[in-house]
Amino acid sequence: MGTQGPANSDYIPNNADTRTAKEKAIDDWLPITSSRNAKWWYSAFHNVTAMVGAGVLGLPYAMAELGWGPGVAVLVISWVVTLYTLWQMVEMHEMVPGRRFDRYHELGQYAFGEKLGLYIVVPQQLVVEVGVNIVYMVTGGKSLHKFHELVCKDCKNIKLTYFIAIFASAHFVLSHLPNFNSISGVSLAAAVMSLSYSTIAWGASAKKGVQPNVDYSYKATTTIGKVFNFFSALGDVAFAYAGHNVVLEIQATIPSTPEKPSKGPMWKGVIVAYIVVALCYFPVALIGYYIFGNEVDDNILITLEKPTWLIAMANLFVVVHVIGSYQIYAMPVFDMIETVLVKKMNFKPTWSLRFITRNIYVGNIHNVYRHDLPFLWRPSIVLWRICICPNHILCKKTIRVSFVIGMFLPCIMWLSIYKPRKFSASWCANWVCIILGVILMIVSPIGGLRTIIIQAKTYKFYS
């Protein structure tokens, strides 16, 4: 790719372990560095779980707002670009001999400097990971609610609030699993479920057949509506390929030696994961849109409705998947919290500390949804929604970072660290990704904000 070695020649890695016994004990306790015996297939299903979210069920709706040509192009380009940027992160994980960048912010600090790296990476990573936890709290509750409605149509109606509380209760238990390797079983189940409900979505659509009078024109009738819907759909597709925020942390669990660096098994797992992603995304998006046209709902399972038992099963699969994905995104957050408490505030690394902090986190995430706007579940605007919540302190300007991270922040780091020759293949590829990312960062929140404004006119808070 026309790359060179890291440009900072003044940095001399120390291959010897100079940590004190206390520092080593802390690293052996923290979630990201406590276990390094993962296999390559752990990488595969962790990445599938992190990437294939319930947003895949909204891809046919995005296609209806993009149209056939632009829709297919955006799907393919997003797949290629995110695979390329993820490869960069895998390569950068241990670019310095004798050192591993186990956390995203550590790589950012090496690329941009100790303080600037923290300011750039940590807020972005937290917005995405906390935002995903919030949206999955709501998505899990909604899927449970739908499952209950389908299997017990004569039962008394139960508020969505209670189903979200039920979903949250699972995390009050699972969140106490100490590290990534300890949640591998949950992650594997989630990965299988994501492939399962995606297959149900496109399989049931194909079985239903092309609907009478199917229409492939844009959903909106006005020019301004088409433009803003197009922008919003770009965000939907981009968010569907999220997952970069946990890549380094996942790779940190794989053993590494000079002879067998972790990037080998990690990349093998990533390739498998991206094949699974393609098997999930492309059939759902293309078949769903082909069958229903612009009449498809923003969740294709709602459009399908029958057979009832199959749609109920798919909703239950969604619940299992988002349980696992919640844990994947929460683990780096737990690591950040516990690192600050133990290393900065000098708390003892104990089970009771972990029990208290993780329960507080899950409880606060559960509390946020009560001030949430259920009609805004769509992935492209989840981060806008976070900022609207009265009890959330994140600034609205940080919303855009979900697109920045997935699309071009790894490219900036690559250019900063490796400094590839100008106009080489690597230099050109990274700048193309950066330009696409900047455009997406600007236009997609605009479409999402317009959707919020329109739907808020008829929404009743806390109904």
UniProtKB/TrEMBL annotation:
Superkingdom of source: Eukaryota
Keywords of the record: Amino-acid transport, Cell membrane, Membrane, Transmembrane, Transmembrane helix, Transport
Transmembrane annotation, as ranges: 40-59, 66-87, 160-177, 183-204, 270-292, 312-334, 399-417, 429-453
Stretches assigned to the Amino acid transporter transmembrane domain: 37-362
Pfam families attached to this UniProt entry: Aa_trans
Keyword Repressor assigned: no
Location(s) in or outside the cell: Cell membrane
One CC-aspect GO term: plasma membrane
Membrane topology: Multi-pass membrane protein
A molecular-function term among this protein's GO annotations: amino acid transmembrane transporter activity
InterPro entries noted in UniProt: AA_transpt_TM
Chief location category: membrane
Signal peptide: none
Family, similarity comment: Belongs to the amino acid/polyamine transporter 2 family. Amino acid/auxin permease (AAAP) (TC 2.A.18.2) subfamily.
Protein name: Amino acid transporter transmembrane domain-containing protein
Organism taxonomic ancestry: Eukaryota, Viridiplantae, Streptophyta, Embryophyta, Tracheophyta
